[in-house]
Specification:
Elements lengths: L10 E3 L2 E3 L5 E5 L6 H14 L3 E3 L17 H13 L3 E5 L6 H7 L2 E4 L7 H8 L5 E4 L6 H13 L5 E5 L17 H8 L4 E3 L1 H5 L5 H10 L4 E5 L17 H18 L7
Parallel strand pairs: 3-4, 3-10, 4-5, 5-6, 6-7, 7-8, 8-9
Antiparallel strand pairs: 1-2
Helix pairs in contact: 1-2, 1-9, 4-5, 8-9
The chain binds phosphoenolpyruvate (PEP) and manganese (II) ion.
Phosphoenolpyruvate binds next to loops.
Length: 268
């Protein structure tokens, strides 16, 4: 099912269409915070050009003692803030038992890097109709990633958007190593839309715009970016979070780059 035969897949999530030529911007805090802060983020992100609101209600955390998210309260807050700003919601689902709960509130379900090969979760996500954002595993090859997309599609849900978020290498200057080549490689191997998360790819807000623009130049279909009105105050991942003003500039620059590379033949 996941192959490069036929036409490129377009995936509609609220007002956003992945794979239609125009980059899609999904933006929001790492983790859902107070409802008022979320409304502020949503308004700012929407004004900057984002059509999807991101934010973790259930967070995968390396340490079991880190904050793991506000759960269903956060899902409700995401829904309300997104509705108010006329946006769609994309948020992570950590396990099979959460799929229907998260699908009740979100327009798109995110399967995070740490769960890319949680095959039971992939199958459960494939048995429900909401589109899936499938992040690349921290140490997964492109073929393994596509096999995971196939798990979802094989259950009947072919609406999968792939998200490059960097991989683990010997390099420690960045949080992950951004694999820019995965964008054209995925274009050769599949018809699914591909987006990039420059926040987790870099771990440093000063690097985010550069990775984001390189991703757009390489032909990706959108960006998933951590944004907060006051990044240094974010509950989680503040170092890699950009401000709403920075998002505004980034979206404008990304549109110019997309326009400039429009017409450069992409691999088939
Ligand atoms: C996230 O986007 O909130 C996240 C946890 O990212 P990743 O799964 O790529 O680490
Ligand atoms: Mn984060």
């Amino acid at each position: 099912l996941v192959s490069s035969d036929g036409d490129r897949v377009q995936i509609q999530v609220g007002k956003a269409t992945f794979g239609a030529g125009e980059p899609v911007f999904a933006a929001g805090p790492c983790t859902v915070e107070e409802p008022e802060v979320l409304v502020e983020v949503a308004r700012g992100a929407a004004a900057a050009g984002a059509t999807l609101l991101r934010g973790g209600a259930f967070k995968p955390t390396t340490s079991p003692y880190s904050f793991r998210g506000h759960g269903e309260v956060a899902l409700k807050a995401l829904r309300e803030a997104a509705d108010e700003a006329d946006m769609g919601v994309v948020t992570e689902v950590l396990g099979t038992s959460q799929v229907s709960l998260v699908a009740n509130y979100a327009d798109m379900l995110q399967i995070g890097a740490r769960n890319m090969q949680n095959f039971e979760l992939l199958r459960e996500a494939g048995r429900q109709p909401k589109p899936i954002l499938l992040k690349r595993g921290l140490a997964s090859t492109i073929d393994e990633w596509l096999c995971s997309a196939e798990y979802i599609a094989a259950e009947g849900n072919e609406q999968v958007v792939l998200c490059e978020r960097g991989i683990r290498t010997f390099e420690t200057a960045t949080r992950a190593t951004f694999d820019v080549a995965s964008i054209p490689v995925l274009r050769l191997r599949s018809n699914l839309p591909v987006i990039v998360d420059p926040s987790h790819s870099s771990g440093d807000r000063r690097l985010v715009p550069h990775i984001a623009l390189a991703a757009i130049a390489a032909g990706c279909d959108g960006l998933l970016i951590e944004v907060h009105p006051r990044p240094e105050q974010s509950l989680k991942d503040g170092r890699q979070t950009i401000s709403t003003e920075e998002l505004q500039k980034l979206v404008a620059a990304a549109r110019r780059v997309a326009e400039a590379v429009n017409g450069v033949p992409l691999p088939r």
